[in-house]
Amino acid sequence: MEEKNVVKFKKEEFAIKEYVKDLLGKGKVSRVKIEYTPVGEKVIIATNRPGMIIGKGGEKIRELTRMLKGKFALENPDIEIDEIKRPEFDAQFMADEIALSLERFGPLKFKVIAYKALQKIMQAGALGSEIRISGKLPGARAKTWRFAQGYLKKTGDSAKVVDRAQAVAQTRPGTVGVKMSILSPEAVLTDKIVIDEEFLKKIGENKEKKQEEKEKNNRKGKRGSKNGKN
Question: Residue 23 to residues 67, 70, 192: CA-CA distances in angstroms?
Fold first, then answer.
């Protein structure tokens, strides 16, 4: 019985998140998080366009609060905005941007769209990025195209810091799927090795000193052998 309640609870939570995303529109919301407090539910919306979500004088926020109360029977939903400063490092935003571009310009220009998005991400300072576009591109048979640049972990604990997201584009030939992976420069890599240049310099200097001392000792030894013969 407890398992059924948990499943039901998670389904309702997922429905709320998808409803908020669909209501606000593709490309405007990265993620929706729900926290439960003693005074009510806190709905946190991550976006790089807070003005469009809030509306004039908070009009859209009030409307969204009213709709959440009516549709999902939330007692006291409190909507907060989490502004994303660098959308180039947000996988969901970039995946939605590619999907919207495919819907607008058509799937035949998927290579141009993908390379522009990849260039935008890498120029912003990302350590690595990968884009996978699947669908009828450009022929009648579905195929997956991969675009990647930089360093990207795919296995182990370090792979957990890679931001991943998916988006769907509805084009004339059919549905196109977009998978995005981005490794932000702010990500902490557990297997990263930092080389101390000063330490290497000291090691080099010590080697040079030892080499000089060795050469001096060799020269002294040669002189002593010559004197002994004389």
Answer: 10, 14, 41
Q: Give the domain 2-84 fold.
A: GMP Synthetase; Chain A, domain 3 (3.30.300)
* Whole-number Cα distances in Å, 206 to 77, 197, 202, 214: 66, 14, 6, 12
Residue 166 three-state SS: strand
Domain 88-183 = CATH 3.40.190.170: no
Q: Cα 195 vs. chain centroid, distance in angstroms?
A: 26
pLDDT of residue 221: 62
Read off the pTM: 0.76
pLDDT tens for each residue of 100-130: 999 999 888 899 999 999 999 999 999 999 9
**Measured distance CA(168)–CA(108) in Å, rounded:** 16
Query: Which residues are registered as beta bridge partners of 47?
Result: 83
Question: Which of 95, 64, 66, 67 minimizes the C-alpha distance to 80?
Answer: 64
Q: Report pLDDT digits (tens) over 68-91.
A: 888 888 888 888 999 888 999 999
Taking the C-alpha atoms of 174, 119, 180 and 155 in order, what is their torsion angle to the nearest 10 degrees? Answer: 140
